[in-house]
Amino acid sequence: MSRKLVYRFALVCLLGFLSSGCAIPGLKEANQRLKEQNDRLVSENNRLEQELASFRGGGGAEAAVANTPARKEAASDLLIPADSGIDSNVQIERTAEGIKLTIPQQVFFAPGKTELTSTGKGVLRNIGQLLNNNDYSDNTVRVEGHTDDQPVKKVRDRYPSNWELSTARACTVVRYLVGSAGVAKSRIYPAGFADTRPLANGKSSDSRQKNRRVEITILNQGA
């Protein structure tokens, strides 16, 4: 065998040795590093998707939570600080207009009345603190009064219809938030809708009770 052939044979053997003895472990290490990097990227992507869903108003995971009755508290935790002291009777949800707080009428008013109950005043004090929170201090606030479909009877002399009654209740809430809770009157206004925007259909006492309510909406800036 010539010297050149010997050299070639030795070179082939060396390359075979390197590919089987050295290159394979190196490839395994590189493959392991790539797998670890991929796992980190997948984990980071999942985290970012969750943050994006929480950030989007009215979309993603937050909307799914808010639209599930059994998980209203979870939606509230996302929208309102845990130490706000907001009463458990207050339902909180995000809408296209902003953050809406719905309070049953019986928390604020006796039937046919527009004077706030002591419980209602306590609820409004906490809501007033929320409205003055730095996160919402520049937002306009709308206070809505809503009634059921039963006509006014005992107080017809003062409130000829549910339009007047619902508007008077909204004005009472606004006056208290401005006068006793320190909300600037330039950023809050009342509205009365009578029975035109029911939450529940039907003539049952339960349906009518759901429709008697006050809604306070912290409007999106620029709305």
- Assign a percent range to the helix content: 40-55%
Which range does the strand content fall in? Answer: 5-15%
Low-confidence stretches: 55-78
Do you know the CATH topology of the domain at 80-219? 60s Ribosomal Protein L30, Chain: A
Major sheet attributes: 5 strands, mixed
N-to-C SSE string, H for helix and E for strand = HHHEEHHEHEHE
Distance between the termini: 92 Å
CATH class of the domain at 80-219: Alpha Beta
Structural class: alpha+beta
Please outline the helices and strands:
Elements (H helix, E strand, L loop, with lengths): L2 H53 L4 H7 L5 H8 L11 E4 L3 E7 H4 L9 H14 L9 E6 L15 H18 L8 E5 L12 H7 L1 E7 L4
Helix pairs in contact: 2-3, 5-6
Summarize the structure in words.
By secondary structure, this protein is an alpha+beta fold. The protein has helices at 3-55, 60-66, 72-79, 105-108, 118-131, 162-179, 205-211, and strands at residues 91-94, 98-104, 141-146, 188-192, 213-219. It has a domain at 80-219: 60s Ribosomal Protein L30, Chain: A. Strands 1-2-5-3-4 form a five-stranded mixed sheet. α2 (60-66) packs across α3 and α5 (118-131) packs across α6 (162-179). The N and C termini lie far apart (92 Å). Mean pLDDT is 79; it is low at 55-78.
Keywords, separated by commas or semicolons:
223 residues, alpha+beta, 60s Ribosomal Protein L30, Chain: A, 13% strand
Entry summary:
With about 220 residues, the chain is an alpha+beta fold. It has helices at about 5-55, 60-65, 70-80, 105-110, 120-130, 160-180, 205-210, and strands spanning about 90-95, 100-105, 140-145, 190, 215-220. It has a five-stranded mixed sheet with strand order 1-2-5-3-4.
